[in-house]
Write a structure and sequence with these properties.
CATH architecture of the largest domain: 2-Layer Sandwich
Structural class: alpha+beta
CATH class of the largest domain: Alpha Beta
Strand content: 15-25%
Helix content: 25-40%
Distance between the termini: 24 Å
Bound molecules: flavin-adenine dinucleotide
Length: 505
């Protein structure tokens, strides 16, 4: 047993630390099939104090530490880069600490899931607005804040989950604990505002992908859930990419307050129906692309007025209502009423058996996405030879493309794009050529999409280093980020290697 293990074991009880080979392998991956890094130790602290002690020892021993919430990053963000280090599993820290009903703020430990938090809030008629990511049933709020997550519902109205952030408690890489926002004033009794008391230091940790500190407590604004809601789904006419972008843009230009608006491309509808993974599409007359909206209101009149304005936009753009019931294909109703917002992506990703996604999530202006989707098709054709190397073995070609396009705050959308492929273990054998080709294609696609100027918000192991390797950051920006990292984390122990921050040792 290593010295490091023995020191760490004294901090948490034996039950919450392991160097067992099975446990280490269980923590060696995230969602993708291509990246693996086996940690030396997995540890499950109960509070900030224990994390402070763990980080101090990790600094003494020069060991990498990787914070992990639910571990469902798509770019290998919550497992080590290479085989080493300590995975800090935060899922034990999953308690709600306070609901300030008067000031509409909830404070919870960072390892809690969006699902558990919102289940608690709904008993008080409240919700978090942006419901986190589409993986919110298990994804943690700490992971969400570290990624600027968006996509789990409410994102057209509220934007990314970091928009609702009020205050953070963070353990810095050297072990000190800070609280941000109103809590920077030691006389403040409770968190109530993020901005002020100097620069927005909470913002430093938003979307940091776990490199600047370990979030231990998160205070978020909460909102009363409006009494009225409407949800409608429409079949798109031909040229659906352009038409959908036009519709989403018109919604913004008319200033209509939608809760969610989403474009689901025809390929996803067809495969969803063929595979039976989206039962609500079964009765669709034509397997075309879909667009839907969900809206909320405090009165019936307000709801009707918003629906009227939205329907006018749909009709003008020749989009046809599929019907009001889920069985008619009204995915908007399923999304809002049956919490499809937290199930949708799971259905998508299991759509073709044994195919796994090598994806990416980015933000871009609404009018830009048709061009990006067309270019992904073009990329797919250009890379046919490499795709063929995989299909020669698997007898099925990987598919490149995009998941649904979601309106977020501003006139921006979230695009999930990438390709689905096979794991190198196929039909009882390991095929190195699949692994090599997957990595090559994934890099090539992400580089291509990056050149459209998109903004990646989940970066992990893969995307954070790729941005540096392909020279996508401006030099000044990258150096600025590196200087902050060096000050906060002189030994570069926290999430070592992301953004190519490796340290000198
Ligand atoms: C089916 C499916 C659907 C998804 N849909 C979406 C979506 O709609 N939108 C979206 O944004 N993402 C989505 N994701 C990706 C991912 O689940 C989310 O980004 C989620 O927010 C990650 O949360 P997590 O708890 O799993 O974080 P992890 O994967 O454990 O960690 C994510 C990153 O944050 C760091 N981190 C985690 N917790 C902390 C902490 N407390 N302090 C400091 N750093 C920390 C990690 O080191 C890592 O870099 C989806 C994934 C799946 C599998």
């Amino acid at each position: 047993m290593s010295d490091l293990y023995q020191k760490l074991e004294k901090i948490v009880s034996e039950k919450y630390i392991s160097n067992d080979i099975y446990v280490r392998h269980a923590y060696s991956r995230n969602v993708d099939i291509a990246l693996q890094g086996i940690p030396d130790i997995v540890i499950r602290p109960k509070d900030a104090q224990e994390i402070t002690e763990i980080l101090k020892i990790a600094n003494e021993e020069n060991s990498a530490v990787i914070p992990r919430g639910a571990g469902i990053c798509e770019f290998g963000g919550s497992k080590p880069i290479g085989d080493n280090g300590i995975v800090l599993d935060l899922k034990r820290m999953n308690n709600i600490l306070n609901l300030d009903k008067e000031n509409l703020i909830v404070t919870a430990e960072a390892g809690i899931s969006w699902g558990k938090l919102n289940e608690y809030l709904c008993h008080h008629g409240l919700y978090t607005g942006c419901m986190g990511p589409g993986s919110g049933m298990s994804a943690s709020i700490g992971g969400g804040i570290s990624h600027h997550s968006v996509g789990g519902g409410g994102c057209a109205k509220y934007g990314a989950c970091t928009n609702q952030l009020v205050s953070l408690e963070v353990v810095l890489p050297t072990g000190e604990v800070i609280e941000t926002g109103s809590q920077a004033n030691k006389h403040s009794k409770f968190p109530f505002n993020r901005f002020g008391n100097g620069p927005d230091l909470a913002g430093l940790f938003c979307g940091d992908n776990g490199i600047f500190g370990v979030k231990t407590k998160v205070s978020l604004q909460v909102f009363p859930k409006p009494e009225y809601a409407e949800y409608k789904t429409f079949l798109l006419p031909r040229k659906e990419r352009i038409v959908s972008a036009k519709i989403l843009s018109e919604i913004r230009h008319k200033g209509i307050d939608v809760y969610d608006a989403m474009y689901i491309m025809d390929l996803l509808v067809r495969v969803g129906v063929d595979q039976g993974s989206m039962p609500m599409y079964e009765n669709l007359k034509r397997k075309r692309g879909l667009i839907f909206y969900t809206i909320e209101a405090n009165t019936e009149a307000e709801l009707e007025e918003k629906a009227k304005q939205l329907d006018e936009i749909m009709i003008k753009n020749k989009a046809e209502n599929v019907g009001s019931e889920i069985s008619d294909g009204n995915i908007a109703k399923w999304h809002y009423v049956e919490q499809g917002h937290w199930q949708f992506y799971h259905n998508l990703w299991g759509m073709v058996p044994s195919n796994q996604p090598l994806t990416a999530e980015s933000f871009c202006p609404t009018n830009k996405y048709p061009e990006i989707l067309n270019d992904i098709d073009q990329w797919d054709m250009e890379n046919n030879e490499n795709m063929q190397k995989i299909s020669d073995i698997t007898k099925m070609r990987p598919i490149a493309g995009s998941g649904p396009i979601l309106l977020i705050d501003g006139n921006n959308v979230e695009i999930t794009c990438g390709f689905t492929s096979f794991w190198s273990y196929f039909d009882g054998e390991i095929h190195d050529v699949i692994q090599e080709t997957n990595l090559k294609l994934w890099k090539s696609l992400l580089e291509r999409v990056t050149k459209h100027g998109v903004q990646w918000y989940m970066m992990g192991d893969f995307m954070s280093r790729l941005m540096v390797d392909i020279g996508a950051y401006s030099e000044e920006y990258y150096n600025f980020m590196k200087s902050i990292k060096k000050i906060l984390d002189p030994n570069m122990i926290l999430s070592r290697g992301k953004f190519n921050f490796w340290g000198d040792k």
